[in-house]
Amino acid sequence: MPRGACGRLASALRGTRAQPPAVAQRCVHASVSRPSPDQSERTREPPRVFDPALLEFLVCPLSKKPLRYEASTNELINEELGIAYPIIDGIPNMIPQAARMTHQNKKQEETEQH
């Protein structure tokens, strides 16, 4: 940065009457933390709901079998493997590491071991 620009920026930061260069003004305005229009709109919107029509296209990424929507837990259930995928803001999280084991699967394993 040329020496003159540094001096103007430094004096602007110290609160003197010198006008800061336009670049410094843009930087200061860009760095101010304020919610974007998208964020404020999201807080006003009701939470998104899962569309059960998607079940026609969605399958378990592990078994490639159909899934069942459980509204009470807001999850997609794979009955065969006994796992449940969470739905967040109406979007299914189909990452296997995010899935949880259902209680039904644990009970089946216990009865098989005895």
UniProtKB/TrEMBL annotation:
HAMAP family: UPF0434. The gene is LOC118906956. One of its GO terms (cellular component) is mitochondrion. The lineage of its organism: Eukaryota, Metazoa, Chordata, Craniata, Vertebrata. This is Protein preY, mitochondrial. Pfam families: Trm112p. It is found in: Mitochondrion. InterPro entries: Trm112-like. Belongs to the PREY family. Residues 12-48 are annotated as: Disordered. Keywords: Mitochondrion, Transit peptide. It comes from the Eukaryota. Residues 39-48 have a biased composition (Basic and acidic residues).
